[in-house]
Write a structure and sequence with these properties.
It is built from 13 helices and 19 strands. By secondary structure, it is of the alpha+beta class. The strands form three sheets. Strands 2, 3, 4, 5, 6, 7, 8, 10, 11, 15 and 18 form an eleven-stranded mixed sheet that branches. A six-stranded antiparallel sheet has the order 14-13-12-9-16-17. Helix 1 packs antiparallel against helix 4, helix 2 runs antiparallel to helix 3 and helix 4 crosses helix 13.
């Protein structure tokens, strides 16, 4: 499809977006006498009560926690019962479908109008002396389950297999491999181990190979690697290409994904967290949010001051959404040269409800990009979670980015590569629909 055709499609989709939005308003206006306001009001009330219930459940114990759980579950259920009892379910369904169509067309229009360039890959020569460090415990034993040692050695790599009973300094192992002539470093393990070895590779300007043998493999996901079969990552040794990506730095320590301060960093410090994440978090949250364990952080993100934050999340390149720092969230690129910053400050149920309704527009949530973030507190040191690893660091803690510092060797065939999706921009949608701007293909 030519750029002209794509521009026409983008304009058509933008106009469909506007029509769908108008349709939603028309349905609502026509239904005002038949419960339209009830649908909207009940929906918002259900959302507010659910958010308040979640806050009571997380931030309190005992009877209040039980009450919060009941409210969080009962609120959306009560809304559905109201719709059914008053015969409003069909109207609610139509409004939901209209709004869903609006959002779907809007995203499609933006995707067609502005094709963000993907990370540029360049041809790479085959490494002659690759050295791979593998953690047999990582990801529940993926190294052994997928035969990664045997496969890597068949391809000519030297494998350093870590001993789970004797913790090793993986950075020292990587430096020794470089001193012995390694021309590529790689890791089959979690993101924390990936970052330590990546720093050595960047220091010596060597290619770095990511093998998705960790538990979550966020870094591998954003590189487009196969997380279901880590052995496919080894294809890069014989048929690979190279990406230049950014490497994060927090107080002299590298990170590939995120650095967390505040509540989450406090929770992951506990040894019981590894075996019981949800239970440990629920046990600690009341004290961390409202009790004696409350910790407030101040930060300076470039020229913007963030005060009294309960949680602060800094990422190596921004995520698509502020809600995607965990789970299945993705970063559309790893070479923008910018940190993603999310600050959270919620102190009661009303603020939790405001955040649920207004999202990033709420004063309780700060979302921005920066090149330097300095975190301070009223203590000499604070807990920090770096790519999921729990540490303590002296304040102030400075996060920066080393643009293009890391050469990552990846297979040519990467099933996880997705086209970057532009952020939602309603003004651009309207301009496209009215023909004020042309599609921009990079």
């Amino acid at each position: 499809m030519t750029g002209h055709d794509e521009g026409a499609v983008a304009r058509l989709l933008a106009r469909l977006t506007v029509l769908a939005a108008i349709g939603t308003v028309v349905v609502l206006v026509l239904a005002l006498g038949r419960g339209g306001l009830v649908v909207i009001g009940a929906g918002l009330a259900g959302l507010v009560l659910c958010a308040a219930g979640v806050w009571w459940f997380v931030a309190h114990r005992g009877v209040v926690r039980l009450f919060g759980a009941l409210v969080a579950v009962a609120a959306p259920g009560a809304v559905l019962v109201l719709f059914a009892f008053d015969g409003l379910w069909l109207l609610a369904l139509i409004l939901g479908l209209c709004w869903g169509a609006t959002l779907g067309c809007a995203r499609a229009a933006l995707r067609s109008s502005r094709r963000e360039r993907s990370m540029r890959a360049i041809a790479a020569s085959r490494p002659q002396r690759p050295v791979l460090i593998m953690n047999p415990k990582s990801g529940g034993g993926k190294v052994g389950r997928f035969g990664l040692v045997e496969r890597a050695e068949e391809l000519g790599a030297r494998v350093i297999l870590l001993d789970p009973s004797a913790p090793a300094d993986v950075a020292a192992l990587a430096r020794r491999a470089v001193a012995e002539g390694a021309d590529l470093l790689g890791v089959a393990g979690g993101d924390g181990t990936q970052a330590l070895v990546a720093a050595v590779a960047a220091e010596h300007d060597l290619p770095f190979l990511v093998i998705s043998a960790g538990t979550r493999n966020h870094f591998a996901m954003d590189l487009g690697l196969d997380r279901a079969d880590p052995s496919r990552c080894l294809d890069a040794l014989t048929d690979g290409e190279e990406l230049r990506v950014d490497l994060g730095d927090v107080a002299g320590r590298a990170f590939v994904n995120t650095v967390s301060f505040g509540v989450y960093a406090d929770v992951v410090q506990r040894p019981e967290y590894r075996d019981d994440k949800a239970g440990t978090a629920l046990t600690l949250m009341p004290d961390l949010l409202l009790g004696e364990g409350v910790r407030r952080l101040d930060a300076q993100a470039d020229t913007v001051a963030l005060s009294s934050q309960q949680a602060l999340l800094v990422s190596n390149n921004p995520y698509v959404s502020p809600y995607e720092f965990s789970g299945g969230g993705r970063r559309p690129r790893l070479d923008s040269g910018e940190l993603g910053v999310v600050g959270i400050r919620v102190e009661d149920a009303a603020q939790a409800a405001d955040l649920a309704v207004r999202g990033p527009q709420s004063p309780g949530l700060t979302v921005m990009i920066a090149r330097r973030v300095e975190v301070t507190a009223d203590t000499d040191e604070i807990p920090v979670a770096i790519d999921g690893e729990a540490l303590w660091m002296p304040t102030p803690v400075v996060c920066t980015l080393c643009p293009g510092a890391l050469r990552v060797l990846v297979p040519r065939e990467r099933p996880g590569v997705v086209a970057p999706t532009p952020t939602m921009n309603w003004r651009r949608i309207i301009d496209l629909a009215l023909g004020r701007i042309a599609a921009d293909h990079q």
